[in-house]
Specification:
Elements lengths: L2 E6 L11 H14 L3 E6 L13 E5 L12 H15 L4 E4 L12 H5 L1 E2 L11 E7 L15 E5 L6 E2 L3 E9 L2 E9 L3 E4 L5 H4 L2 H15 L1
Parallel strand pairs: 1-2, 1-3, 3-4, 4-11
Antiparallel strand pairs: 5-8, 6-7, 6-9, 9-10, 10-11
InterPro entries: Class_I_gatase-like, ThuA-like
Organism: Cutibacterium modestum HL044PA1
Protein name: ThuA-like domain-containing protein
Length: about 220
């Protein structure tokens, strides 16, 4: 049994397009069902503090491209604390819009191992989509018991994967393969799925999420 905190977009790191509360509630339900202790915390400064007792942080936060965030000393200090925790081996599962979150924290993309680049990255309309194994990830533990993930979701495209990250999951769009998730080191995973609760209702997505958490905690 692990102690897990889900960071849920609500204030500073939310947007008008994603129902973060319902996604976070679905993540909590899935992980509690396999025995973990899970707390969901809205995005106030304290959500990035007092991390030492945690086994895993799930980042379900957004970033509104239409809002320019002003510098905030308290948030900057909390982000520094979170970054130190990650660099010290703290385990992070970042989902969906987390690749576009913390626009006021320049270090976040390097810690995550990739990013959504505003003006470059994009996605077509939500649909029933099939995500498969990225080359080299065929035997990765996140794929235990799965060949593909089929889910109603957004297909993030033209994400930037940093050198040193290992692509895990991809989709095909207009006859081109698009990386949708990766591992960065042995303690960080980014998973581009998870627009809303409907995404987490997919049995294969639920299995993939549990596999990600099992691997991060192993």
């Amino acid at each position: 049994m692990a102690s897990i905190r889900v960071l849920s977009g609500h204030g500073r790191y939310t947007d008008p397009w994603h129902p973060f509360a319902e996604g976070s509630a679905a993540i909590r339900e899935i992980l509690e069902a396999v025995g973990h202790r899970v707390e969901v915390r809205d995005d106030d400064v304290s959500c990035l503090q007092e991390l030492d007792a945690l086994d895993l942080v799930v980042v379900n936060l957004g970033g509104n491209v239409e809002v320019e965030l002003e510098h905030d000393d308290e948030w900057a200090a909390a982000q520094h604390e979170f970054g130190q925790w990650i660099r010290g081996g703290g385990r992070v599962l970042a989902v969906h819009t987390a690749a576009n979150s913390f626009p006021d924290w320049p270090e976040w993309p390097a810690l995550l191992g990739g990013q959504w680049v505003r003006g470059t990255s994009w996605h077509p309309k939500r649909c029933i989509a099939t995500f498969g194994k990225a080359p080299g990830a065929e035997d990765y533990p996140v794929w235990t018991g799965l060949d593909v993930v089929t889910v109603y979701d957004e297909r993030y495209s033209d994400l930037v994967v940093h050198e040193g990250s290992t692509p895990l999951i991809r989709h095909e769009l207009s006859e081109e393969w698009q990386v949708m998730g990766w591992a960065h080191g042995d303690n960080v995973i980014y998973d581009g799925m998870g627009h809303d609760a409907r995404s987490y209702s997919s049995p294969s997505h639920r299995k993939f999420l549990i596999n990600e958490v099992d691997w991060l905690l192993s």
